[in-house]
Write a structure and sequence with these properties.
The protein is mainly alpha-helical. Helices cover 68% and strands 0% of the residues.
Length: 109
């Protein structure tokens, strides 16, 4: 499991996905940040590996909280994830509802 985690981290680092982070402090990247970045920047094969090292519920929670609300730029990916990984019957509507809920939460704060 640690080998897969290290491999995913290395790929993200090689793709310069952590451009805004202090790389000297990246040894202990959180599981949530790793899942988020893999889903945003790597390919399906790498996303599949997330399910080998993390529980389904954890990956889905990170997707719901950090990836799906990202809006229009990532909407096609999120529709694919909703359908392929999380079994949404109407993935477009599901993703739109997640985005709307996120915006409403921000506006209510």
């Amino acid at each position: 499991m640690e080998d897969i985690r290290s491999e995913l981290f290395r790929k993200l680092k090689d793709e310069n996905c952590f451009w805004s982070y202090d790389l000297s402090k990246m040894d202990d990247i959180s599981d949530e940040a790793l899942i988020e970045h893999v889903m945003l920047y790597l390919d399906i094969e790498d996303i599949n590996k997330l399910f080998n090292i993390f529980r389904y519920k954890k990956v889905k929670r990170v997707w719901l909280d950090r990836v799906a609300p990202q809006g229009e730029m990532y909407r096609p990916y999120n529709i694919l994830y909703a359908w392929y990984y999380f079994g949404a019957k109407r993935p477009e509507a599901y993703v739109k509802s997640i985005e709307t809920r996120h915006i409403n939460k921000i506006l209510a704060a």
